[in-house]
Amino acid sequence: MMTSEFNYSDLFTEEDGVLSRVPFFLFFLFVAIVLMNLLVGLAVSDITYLEDTGRRRVLEQQVNIIGVIVMKNRS
Length: 75
What we know:
By secondary structure, the chain is mainly α. It has two helices and no strands. The protein has a domain at 47-75. It has helices spanning 8-11, 18-74.
């Protein structure tokens, strides 16, 4: 998806040597790697938030269940 925005024939001509193409492809490769790492980092931070929220909900449900059990035993 990221690579479809570049048309090879528009960027380089036949007169361009290998030395003019190598920096572009290295830059292109490193930008793709950096973007993927940023997306992975964002996903990992979201997972931490979801784990914390899940633990809190489990504790709330346990408190509610204990409350229901205690109220039934009083009757």
